[in-house]
Amino acid sequence: MLKRLSVVLLACLTLSACGGVDPNSPLGQRKTIFKQMLKTSEDLGGMLRGRLAFDGQKFADGAVKLDNLSREPWKHFPQVREEDDTSARTDVWEKQARFQDLARQMEATTAELVAVTRAQPLKAAQLTEPMNKVEAACKACHTEFRNH
């Protein structure tokens, strides 16, 4: 019985170590943030495109959340590329100035979106252009620095 239990426990430990990303590693931290950014951005875009009901307060809250999140992932890119299975191209580390420039552009577009949400009551039409800028900033960085 003890032998069987040991084999099962060893199998479970082996399987749990396969393919997982340490959530506390730089890669795990930034993946979590990027997933939160994607979810928030999709909800905001969904409100503007009619996939979700438009709610001005929820949109404004989401814009603030996205703005806060947009400032976080960059600190989880270590100076030297880690050996983990990352979607980031080596250019992130080889072209740091350009990468940081795109990060600052992302932060600027989310800040602009927040500024527009301060004019109440909100109307979806006034938010489309700033949201398009946020989405374009995301896409620009992905195009240059992410393996798709």
Automatic annotation (TrEMBL):
Keywords: Electron transport, Heme, Iron, Metal-binding, Signal, Transport. Gene3D superfamilies: Cytochrome c/b562. GO terms for biological process: electron transport chain. PROSITE patterns: CYTCII, PROKAR_LIPOPROTEIN. One of its GO terms (molecular function) is iron ion binding. It holds the Pfam family Cytochrom_C_2. One of its GO terms (cellular component) is periplasmic space. Binds 1 heme group per subunit. It comes from the Bacteria. This is Cytochrome C' family protein. It comes from Pseudomonas wadenswilerensis.
